[in-house]
Amino acid sequence: MSYQLIRLSAGLEMRVDIPGRLILVDSVSTGQGVDIALVRSGTPSPYIPGRQAGFRLVEDFGGVLLRSALDCEVGIFLSINDVQLGGTAGGNVVVPDGVSVVNDLAHSIPVTLTSSSNTTPIPVSLASIRVNNTPEQAIPVLFSGTVAPVLGVVTVDNTNAEAIPVLQKPGETFEVHVNNAAPMAVSLTSTKISNTNAEAVPVLQKVGAVFESRVTNSDADAVPMRQKAGVTFVVQAAPMPVITDFAPVVVGLVRTLLVSDATQKRLRIRNTHPVASVVIGGAGVTLENGPVVIGPGGLWVEDDGAAAEWYAISDTADVTMQIQGLK
Length: 327
Description:
By secondary structure, the protein is an all-beta fold. Helices cover 0% and strands 28% of the residues. It is built from no helices and 18 strands. The chain has strands at 2-8, 14-16, 20-28, 34-40, 43-44, 48-51, 56-61, 63-67, 72-79, 243-245, 249-251, 256-260, 266-271, 278-281, 292-294, 299-302, 309-314, 319-326. β4 (34-40) and β5 (43-44) form a beta hairpin. The radius of gyration is 39 Å and the shape is flat.
């Protein structure tokens, strides 16, 4: 039997020419393990990767090859006869990819957190411990002594089925912080409440304050309203669109500004030429990169970017473009 304590350099191969028929890895100083290959009749076999302490192989060999991706120290037995090893008290278990423990409620694992002196408790924060439980697996929490108030920012993400009731302390002010900014007054412009009819939220108006609201509904979601006695209810119709007829623009082989009016909401652009094609786009548009091509006699209606600056270029000189805007 031969016991070898070998230092390996990262990526370099080490050959041990000791024959035998048993390989037993006693120790490996890195969690990635060591690669082992047998040498028979001077020819190495393929590597067995990532072997850890306790790896055992019974096979005739004339020598072994060892390598590691990291600098490490390997203790290995090479023997003709069997070798048995006992465990080491307090030995460390190295698992490179971590350990996953899956349990049901009937097989819970008790965990005790204490300091090295086993007398002073270790502080536990929600930043270091994450607990995922269903409502049926609630975790009771017991506070002893005086509990300090919760300070800072608390984020609560819940579905409608997991609503959290909130009780305000009498005499205290309820503040709303948006994006961790300074507290601000609660108004319908800064607070959005999405509820179904079954989850109506009662609102009490402060004495002397003006309550303003904006309701956006479709025809299918009409909101019934009752007019207050003595108050005139005025409905203002949406303004009619204004048509702008721009002067025709002549474009050609050189990119030309077609229209630039930030007040427009829609544009109609027509190519009047019988054979020429026109490409429209931004300030860098070319015949090759422009995705919007208006063919001979064609019409393009722009709804998304009517307020932008539009340029045009054609494969033919002296092409007249007619432009109409709506705002």
